[in-house]
Task: structure prediction
Amino acid sequence: MELGIGLPTSGALAAPANIAAVAKEAEQLGYDALWTYERLLRPIGDVEQGGGKAPLPETYRLVFEPLETLSYVAALTSTIKLGTSVVNALMHPPVVLARRFATLDQLSGGRAIAGVGQGWMQEEFDTVGVPKQRVGAGFDEVLEAIRACWGPDPVEHQGRYYTIAPSEVNPKPVQQPLPILMGSISPAGIKRAARIADGLNPIAFSADALRQAVSAFREAARELGRDADALPVVARANVPITPDPLGEDRPYLGGSPAQIAEALAALEDSGVDQVLLNNTASTDLDTELRLLDQVRAEYGKRG
Result:
């Protein structure tokens, strides 16, 4: 099973020098992918989330743009994959998003992974002038238009929400196809991913929930006549990575390097292709780099 790492594009370590240091160290240590994510803004005050209202976490006060960050990192690395987990596709015109991902793929020599989601925050939809009701059918059309842009010229798209006149749209991605992963944990989203995406990017809340998501995704893909085993699942774990062990109530896939490695080893038969570890307990760069090394080493002992 592959291991990915979330770059410090938000939180205490969010700075260009730290992003560069983590990227280079992760590649040297043998990690398989580097990941970023998108947050357009952090509204002041309470935000509707999870069935209630509360302020967004402080970590969202500063979030570096995901594709620009990965383009920067592409010049500092040579083999490690570069993915988004996720970019909210409905927040962007499809031709713009298609060209940005294709540019990253060109600059990195074919290492881009387009992780996309539908978005959830009403304030972000309002900011970009897109009605939240476009979730669902609009998302399907965004992906259809993006794939058209990555295909042969002339590109043309006539849909319910988007129109692309017969045009030359370039650059094209190096990868044909450039993989699109859909971030989702809901039953409907998992089925949508099985239908229109090249893979699934769920959040890992628990071992049972993750295994159920993988099973539902593969089953739905098979029912659609797709090669389910060829569609990757990249599980995102937003967890504390700590020098010392945490207690029994620790978050799933969180804790010390040894605890994390033990939990990763238990996933080997789950159908998860990669676990993306996004450290929510970052303190200083030296500690971050040391923990990266220790997680990789501990997991290697069990591999």
